[in-house]
C-alpha cells in the first residue's frame, strides 16, 4: 500500500470564514487542507455560523473553532492563532 501524499504536512493554516454562501465551500477547503496534512484552525464570524455550524468545521479539522475575539477560557487565542499560522 502506498503512503498518501501530504503536501501540507506541518503547515499551520488559519482559515477565516465570513457570512455568505461561500462558507459552504470553506468546509470543502478545510477538509482538503486537513487531508493534505495541514493543521487548520478555523475562525468564524457570527454571520458565518448562520450559514454553516461550527461543529462541521470541528469535525472536519479535529480542532476547536473560534467564533469570537475573546472566546471563554481562551482570551489570548487571537494572538496565538495569528503568530503561529503559516498562511491565512
Q: How would you characterize the overall build of this protein?
A:
The chain is α/β, with parallel strands linked by helices and 88 residues long. The protein has a single domain (12-84), classed as Flavin prenyltransferase-like (Rossmann fold, 3-Layer(aba) Sandwich), CATH 3.40.50. It has four helices and three strands. Helix 1 links the parallel strand 1 (12-17) and strand 2. Helix 1 runs parallel beside helix 3 (54-61). The model has no long low-confidence stretch (mean pLDDT 90).
What is the strand and helix layout of this fold?
Blueprint (H helix, E strand, L loop, with lengths): L11 E6 L5 H13 L3 E6 L3 H4 L2 H8 L3 E2 L10 H8 L4
Parallel strand pairs: 1-2, 2-3
Helix pairs in contact: 1-3
- Find the count of extended strands (DSSP E, 2+ residues): 3
What is the overall shape?
globular
Give the class from helix and strand content and strand pairing. Answer: alpha/beta
How are helices and strands ordered from N to C? EHEHHEH
Count every helix, treating DSSP H or I runs of 4 or more residues as helices: 4
Amino acid at each position: 500500500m502506498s503512503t498518501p501524499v501530504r503536501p501540507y504536512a506541518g503547515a499551520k493554516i488559519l482559515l477565516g470564514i465570513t457570512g455568505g454562501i461561500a462558507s459552504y465551500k470553506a468546509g470543502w477547503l478545510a477538509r482538503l487542507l486537513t487531508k493534505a496534512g495541514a493543521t487548520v484552525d478555523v475562525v468564524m464570524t457570527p454571520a458565518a455560523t448562520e450559514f454553516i455550524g461550527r461543529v462541521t468545521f470541528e469535525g472536519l479539522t479535529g480542532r476547536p473553532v473560534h467564533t469570537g475575539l475573546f472566546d471563554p477560557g481562551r482570551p489570548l487565542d487571537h494572538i496565538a492563532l495569528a503568530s503561529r499560522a503559516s498562511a491565512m
